[in-house]
Every structure is written in C-alpha cells, then in structure tokens.
C-alpha cells in the first residue's frame, strides 16, 4: 500500500486504479466490474480438454477498443514514468476494465524506480537481452522505457491475435520463446498501424514512454479516446468518506 501513498501526493491519473482509502487491514480500491484484458482474451480461446493447447480463437476484440486500450495503457505508463517509476509487471491480468470498458493499471507489487535492474516476470512480457545489449547481455536490462514498451508490444500482439506470441505454435520446449526473443526472432508482423507499433516496442524504438504516449495520441486520439480526469467517473471525496464510515462503524470484517 505504500506506493499508493506516494501516488496520492500527485494529481490522479484516470488510467490507474484508484485507492480510495488505506487502513492497516486493507486497501479500498475502485471496483472494476468488466474483468481484465486476460479475462477477455481467455473468453475467446477454445482449448483442448486438458486446457494445455489452443485449438481456436473464436473472436477478436474490435479495433476501436484495441486503440482505446493502447492509448490508455501508454498514458498510464507515461504518467508513472513522469514520477520516476515503472510498473514492472505489465501484462493482461493486471489491466482491469471498468463498466464502460476503459482500461486501468493495477497491481503495483513490482513497481520499481527507473534505472534499477529489471526483475524477471515471464516471457513474453520481458526480454532476456542478447548481444545487442552489450554489458547487459543475459540480463533483463534496467527498468525504463525499454522494458515497459516491450511488455506493451506483447500486450498489443495479444489483443490483435487473440493469443500470446508463439502460444499457438507447436514448440518442443516451453522455454523456446525466451531464446527466440533474446535472438530478436519475433513472430511475423504485417505493415498495419498496430503491427508497426508492436515492432517498434519489441525493438526498443521509443526512447521514453512520453515519446510512445505522444505517438499513440497522434494516431488515435482524434476519436476522443482519452478521459480528462478521474472526476469524470467518481466523486472521490464522497467515496472516501463512505469507506471511512464503514471502517468507523466496524461494518467490515477482514480475514
């Protein structure tokens, strides 16, 4: 909960899950009632009976929603960058959706200052660096624009394909994607605008998340995708007061 204390010192970001009140027993977070990107992706996968293999992608998310989610995710990542941090665990389960299908960034358990060594999450949300990284070869590099944009590129790939990179391929070794990414052997991409972004992310094109944010805004914000503020959705003061009332009246039972 400590990171939420830091966030509260700044103007709220519309694309980060709100913490209304923090007490020793828990953290009152905004209710996200449309599941997560992970839930949406899984709902479109038809698997074998043992759940180990995908046999069909039954549907894909419409382009206008993918555009919105990418813009919102980049805005959230840039906001954290402006505070000197990275999320450190960008992947579909940590990206819940509200009742209007707007994306929010959640789960700050891996947040880290920019410039510190990146911790291992899992492929394809981070890349084990190869010879191109010089002295950082064999590591996951330093937290910053490179690590975050790589994860965002993989998230966008999932949204446009319905599955993770290499997830539908017949691979002899489940660790093979780790080594393929290290050698910068990426899945085939097209020339459309989404795939152009994916390739830029995987190859570390953006020098900052601000630059990445500005590019996505220039591509798609003419459609009015971005919210102006948190207050468009919540009356924060009223909700905080209600949370405090529940605590004061001992109406909550914590495990």
UniProtKB/TrEMBL annotation:
Pfam families: PK_Tyr_Ser-Thr (PF07714). Residues 1-255 form the Protein kinase domain. SUPFAM superfamilies: Protein kinase-like (PK-like). SMART domains: S_TKc. GO terms for molecular function: ATP binding; protein serine/threonine kinase activity. It comes from the Eukaryota. This is STYKc. It comes from Aspergillus sclerotialis. The lineage of its organism: Eukaryota, Fungi, Dikarya, Ascomycota, Pezizomycotina.
């Amino acid at each position: 909960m400590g990171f939420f204390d830091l966030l509260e010192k700044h103007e709220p970001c519309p694309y980060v899950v709100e913490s209304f009140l923090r007490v020793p027993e828990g953290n009152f977070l905004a209710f996200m009632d449309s599941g997560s990107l992970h839930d949406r992706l899984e709902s479109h996968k038809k698997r074998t009976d043992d759940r180990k293999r995908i046999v069909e992608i039954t549907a894909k998310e419409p382009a206008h929603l993918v555009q919105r989610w990418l813009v919102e995710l980049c805005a959230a990542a840039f906001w954290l960058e402006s505070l000197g941090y990275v999320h450190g665990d960008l992947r579909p389960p940590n990206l819940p959706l509200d009742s209007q299908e707007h994306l929010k960034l959640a789960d700050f358990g891996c947040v880290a200052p920019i410039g510190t060594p990146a911790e291992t999450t899992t492929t394809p949300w981070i890349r084990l660096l190869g010879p191109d990284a010089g002295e950082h070869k064999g590591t996951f590099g330093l937290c910053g624009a490179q690590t975050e944009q790589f994860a965002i590129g993989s998230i966008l790939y999932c949204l446009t394909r319905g599955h993770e990179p290499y997830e539908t391929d017949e691979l002899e070794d489940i660790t093979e994607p780790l080594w393929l990414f290290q050698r910068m052997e990426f899945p085939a991409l097209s020339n459309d605008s989404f795939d152009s972004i994916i390739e830029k992310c995987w190859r570390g094109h953006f020098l900052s998340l601000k630059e990445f944010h500005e590019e996505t805004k220039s591509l798609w914000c003419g459609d009015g995708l971005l919210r102006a503020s948190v207050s468009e959705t919540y009356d924060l003061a009223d909700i905080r007061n209600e949370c405090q009332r529940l605590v004061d009246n001992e109406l909550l039972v914590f495990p």
